[in-house]
Amino acid sequence: MPPRPFPVDLGRTSSYICQSCLSSLRGGLKQQPWIPRLHSQAARKPLPPAQYSTSAARLGTSRVATPSKETQKAAAQSRDDAEHEEEEEEPPSHPVEIKYFNEDRPGHYRRIRDGSDFGGVSGGLDAEIETAINELEQQMVNTVQMLQLMEKQGQQDKADELRKQFKKTLRVQYKGKTGPEGETYGLLQIPGFSGQRRRPIAQLNQFLGRESVVKGGIPKPKDVADCWKYYSAARKTLSTSWGNVPREVWDFLWMVLSWEGPENPNRMHHIYVLAKDMQSAGVVLRDSQQLLAIEAMFIEGWQEPAIEAWKKAVVTLGSKPDTFRAYWELGVRMLCLHGDVERAQRAADTLLKAAQEAKADADARILIPIIRALATKEPASEQAWESYRRLRRLLGPSITIEDYDEVIACFLAGNCVEHGLQAFVDMMFSNAIDIRGKTKLPAAVSNQFFVGKWLKRLIGAGDLDGAYKVVVYLQAKGITASPIQLNGLIGAWLRSETAENLGKAESLAWKMIQSRLRYVTLRRRESQLSGPIRLYDNSGLSPVAEEEELPYTAKATAETFSLLAENYCQRGLHDRLQDLWEVFKQAEINTTTFMMNQLIKSHTQNSHPEEAVRFYRTMTQDQKVRPDGHTFLALFNTLSVNRLVTRDASLAEQDINAGRQFFSEMVTANWVLDDEDILIHLPRTILFSMLKAKDFAGMAIASRAMRELFSFIPTEALLIELAVGSNTLRVQTKRNMERILEGSRTIERLIKKHRRDVGQEDENVLMTPEQKATELTQVLEQLIMLKAGAQDADPKEVRPLLEAAASEMGVYDVVVKKDPNAIARHRKIAVANQG
């Protein structure tokens, strides 16, 4: 249920008067002192101490006020009565003492010490702050009066000069907030709340007092969020006394909360609530604020009250030059969304007629909401077309591609595909070709190149349903979209990840696969016959239903299978991927590396790592599919140290042999490292796999080999993660922060040790990129030795272990012999891209 709408009446007055105006009206009169009042005989009876406290607590706090003339007369009469009673009875031996208390929180009372404390509690501000504000306002009033007096005496030039200096001094002393239109806001505070209710008001006042809020006229996202946070928390308290909120505070809150931009996603809700509160407070909304309030009411779900409010404002907002255009445009949009298209057309005619008579500024694009509303109604599709022609005529040469796109989207959303096609033809050929009502389209339109440009534009704009409607419509005209265009639509559907679009993507992809299978079957039969023949489909495949929306499609390609394979792998649908692979073999399409990689990943995710490796061997050895970096990344993920949470010593031993074998095949395979993502993730995965399997010799050899073949240089972040032994430190938890600090200390200690070894202990010396890369590589090797517990081992004892690992990993010539020919032969990255 939508929230309760605020009253439609937008013309209320405010009773707020600022202290500056009051000070000028008073004319500098001083407050009269309190007149002492003597108590009568009944009042002279003292109360017990406990009753003093209770009575004061009930009274709470009150603001000190100057007594009126009636009060003074009553005091004099009481004094006379008291003198008459004194002749009959002696006065009390001690004066009556009244104690005042303030309820800080429910059930807890604090005694008020003096007048300053009393004023602070009753006024909502500390006594010093309130005194400073009053003095500042009085000084400003005196300055204004002095300048007015100088002007009356004929010293206009001197008064103007002093006024400029006064404004300049004021800006220097107090940096006021500046709005987007250059308006300035002074000291923003809400007085008059005390006790437990004071806390949310104090927080809002603290926000209003920030100097950084709305700096330069543009609120930051944090400004908007904090403004709504503190204001919504203080609304309940403010509602008990709306009159305490100054008009300048309302204007400032409106300026921040109504800011239009991505930093204010709930803008209309904020405006709706704020406008309702301002009207409850009796604050008169400005014309622009009234328009926004009506729009916010409509968007918040109160459509009929908003339209009624719009109608009632026709005499005021609809006739003023400043709000004329905004008023009628708002009416057109609301009426179109509400379904009252006829009234919306009359409102648009009023606006455009006034513009034609040069009475007001108007934009013909106001017809686009009318086109959208008419296109959704099948009987009114021709009216929508006429409105489009009127729009095109009014805009003339100023019509833009974005205008055409919006109109086309309106027609496609209303299933007026022919009108949409004609609008696209108008955009492409400048109204030179008319295709409406024709059964056969002109050659300039009925080709895959023209269709592809339109589909690409629709898919890029996110209008996927419109793109599919175009495919169906053009196929009915005898134009079949190419596989590349359909694959683009399928990929966009799959990337949206909605259930409806996933179903549409699978349906279209499998239709394309069926077309491919029919083609393969007919091609096989044709190859078995000689001479000209007439082919017909009797393959036993599922027949094509004549009533289908898309009875035939283009044939599937390797990209079609790859799109489905990637989606099935991401969703963990291993059985569907297996079925797709069987159909892929029937389609007689050469196996692609991408398809192989998806199947390897799917087998691994389905806890079949042996099947994944076996499939890899079959594809690369029997069918000669060339692997790439993603292939070896998927292979290293088949190791148990990357799959299992609990480590198994026997499986870890197998991982050492398998990891070295994968690394050897990765080096000898003919592929190029041309993807930045794989350049980051593959070395990282290799190092962590060997670290978890405790293959420290292989880890050291892998680091050296990747430096030569990949131009790999470890980053400090990677070194810290390796020092900790975990690659999940990006999750910000208390334990991870402690581990990061521990790893940072280890790396810092190793860096200092390395610099001492090379004789460079001065930390302020700038290092060249080559020196820094060497340092990080050496620190990585020291870290590996530290992890292996061999930091103090004799290099002669370690060398045989490293050479054996290099032989198993296929990089003996690269790492040990450093053969330039071997390095050049196995390099996976171009020389120009090194580093």
UniProtKB/TrEMBL annotation:
Stretches the record annotates as Disordered: 39-99
Domain of life: Eukaryota
Keywords on record: Repeat
InterPro entries named among the record's database cross-references: TPR-like_helical_dom_sf
Name of the molecule in the record: Pentatricopeptide repeat protein
Native source organism of the sequence: Diplogelasinospora grovesii
Lineage of source species: Eukaryota, Fungi, Dikarya, Ascomycota, Pezizomycotina
